[in-house]
């Protein structure tokens, strides 16, 4: 079985968008055999066949190595991320980036590692076993109960970059990449949104081109 090893989301983008047209290119993640991925925990799964990401990626199977946290810890953080920022269109592979980034913090900071360990333990205790396997309603109640804690703030804050600053999320949401240095979006696909209703003509006057 061949899998996509998910790289650190803080690393340079492997895919990205075309600099001239703004078109999102295929997610060109390198392939590796699963037995090359070693660590304290391993998260893995599959992209749903027929979805956008499945068509862009070189394989529908993905894997992610954790250095400090266990696979169960990673699954709990992924589930918490979905409670905080629920997106049906985002696959587990994107939420796994949250677990990877938090794992990196835990691996480099003993205090962060303890905060995450205690927080995950609190999630599982409140769920009566496994937070990741609890019902959606139960997970929501549990996370609400932790609102205001340092653990809650740490996970929620990491979600912002982990879930949205990566090629997979860009492809799902249709973000073509930065264009400010190219004069903005007016001539680079500003009018091509497919996921929002078209505005009335009076709300969208002809652009000022200088």
In short:
By secondary structure, the chain is an alpha+beta fold.
Task: Characterise this structure.
With 210 residues, the chain is an alpha+beta fold. It is built from seven helices and four strands. The chain has helices spanning 52-56, 71-84, 92-108, 110-126, 136-145, 150-164, 167-173; strands at 2-5, 32-33, 41-46, 61-66. A four-stranded mixed sheet has the order 2-1-4-3. Helix 2 (71-84) packs across helix 3, helix 2 packs across helix 5 (136-145) and helix 3 (92-108) crosses helix 4. The longest helix is centred in the middle third of the chain and has 17 residues, at 92-108. Residues 8-17 and 28-37 have low confidence and may be disordered.
How is this fold's topology laid out?
Elements: E1 2-5, E2 32-33, E3 41-46, H1 52-56, E4 61-66, H2 71-84, H3 92-108, H4 110-126, H5 136-145, H6 150-164, H7 167-173
Parallel strand pairs: 1-4
Antiparallel strand pairs: 1-2, 3-4
Helix pairs in contact: 2-3, 2-5, 3-4, 3-6
């Amino acid at each position: 079985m061949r899998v996509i090893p998910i790289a650190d989301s803080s690393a340079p983008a492997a895919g990205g968008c075309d600099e001239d047209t703004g078109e999102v290119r295929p997610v060109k993640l390198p392939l590796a055999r699963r037995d090359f991925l070693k660590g304290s925990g391993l998260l893995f799964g599959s992209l749903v066949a027929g979805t956008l990401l499945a068509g862009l990626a070189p394989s529908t199977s993905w894997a992610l190595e954790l250095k400090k946290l266990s696979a169960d810890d990673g699954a709990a953080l992924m589930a918490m991320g979905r409670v905080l920022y629920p997106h049906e269109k985002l696959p587990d592979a994107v939420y796994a980036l949250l677990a990877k980034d938090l794992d990196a913090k835990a691996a480099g900071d003993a205090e962060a590692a303890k905060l995450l360990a205690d927080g995950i333990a609190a999630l599982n205790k409140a769920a009566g076993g496994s937070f990741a396997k609890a019902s959606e309603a139960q997970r929501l109640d549990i996370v609400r109960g932790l609102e205001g804690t340092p653990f809650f703030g740490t996970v929620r804050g990491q979600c912002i970059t982990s879930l949205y600053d990566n090629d997979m999320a860009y492809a799902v949401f249709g973000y073509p990449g930065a264009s400010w240095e190219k004069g903005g979006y007016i001539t680079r696909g500003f009018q091509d949104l497919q996921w929002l209703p078209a505005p009335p003509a009076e709300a969208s006057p002809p652009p000022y081109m200088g």
